[in-house]
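re: the backbone from monday

yeah here it is again, tokenized this time
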């Protein structure tokens, strides 16, 4: 490889790295929230704001990844969008442990409370976005912490028939956005439509979107899904 070729490769790599970093928050850290007897790690990304706006509280989205995935990938999918729209991102690493589900809604709340020590978060504008397994846990939080999370969005997940009773546990009808692809390998559109109908029958506001030519891979359509999900989430706030 010639010196000229090496220089061109370095230049291209530098430009690509700069493009990836454009708009990204410099205020990112890995933190550990102490939630009862559980220590929960999560990534915190807080956007840069002008000095005259530093006292204004920001909305926050808790990002819940799918099984076998990790928090960092969810953060990557939202980072640039969140920097532009001044959103605090909280992304916990979720264990593949059935026992975690029982404590999950309280742990998500605990994470937000921990993050409030490091970022100005508006308590009326705290949301959840869950993908696949993370969506399953987001449904739990919508029911068992309905007066804490203003709204949730779920990609590629339904409420199982034998778990439909959870809709009766919500003290508040949490607004819910649902996204499902027509080629999802794990959940049919009919099964997710049943979840939509279950929620609407129980009185929940539901924004339902079927994505053409889309499978279970959230990241392939993340920009499109995030934009629509944020439009929905941002329209909802907890009542004072």
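seq for it, each position gets an aa:
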């Amino acid at each position: 490889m010639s010196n000229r070729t090496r220089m061109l490769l370095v230049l291209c790599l530098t430009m690509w790295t700069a493009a990836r970093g454009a708009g990204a928050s410099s205020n990112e850290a890995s933190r550990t929230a102490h939630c009862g007897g559980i220590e929960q790690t999560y990534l915190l990304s807080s956007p840069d704001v002008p000095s005259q706006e530093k006292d204004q509280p920001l909305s926050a989205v808790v990002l819940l990844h799918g099984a076998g995935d990790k928090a960092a990938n969810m953060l990557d999918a939202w980072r640039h969008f969140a920097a532009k729209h001044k959103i605090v991102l909280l992304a916990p690493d979720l264990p593949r442990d059935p026992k975690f589900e029982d404590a999950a809604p309280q742990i998500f709340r605990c994470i937000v409370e921990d993050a409030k020590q490091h970022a100005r978060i508006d308590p009326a504008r705290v949301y959840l976005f869950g993908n696949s397994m993370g969506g399953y846990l987001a449904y739990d939080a919508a029911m068992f912490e309905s007066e804490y999370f203003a709204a949730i969005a779920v990609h590629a997940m339904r409420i199982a028939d034998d778990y439909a009773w959870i809709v009766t546990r919500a003290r508040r009808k949490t607004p819910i956005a649902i996204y499902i692809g027509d080629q999802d390998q794990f959940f049919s559109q009919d099964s997710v439509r049943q979840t939509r109908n279950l929620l609407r029958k129980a009185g929940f506001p539901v924004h339902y979107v079927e994505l053409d030519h889309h499978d279970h891979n959230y990241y392939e359509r993340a920009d499109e899904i995030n934009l629509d999900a944020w439009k929905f989430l941002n329209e909802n706030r907890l009542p004072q």
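The domain at 25-234 is CATH 3.40.50.1820 (Rossmann fold). The two ends are 65 Å apart (CA to CA).
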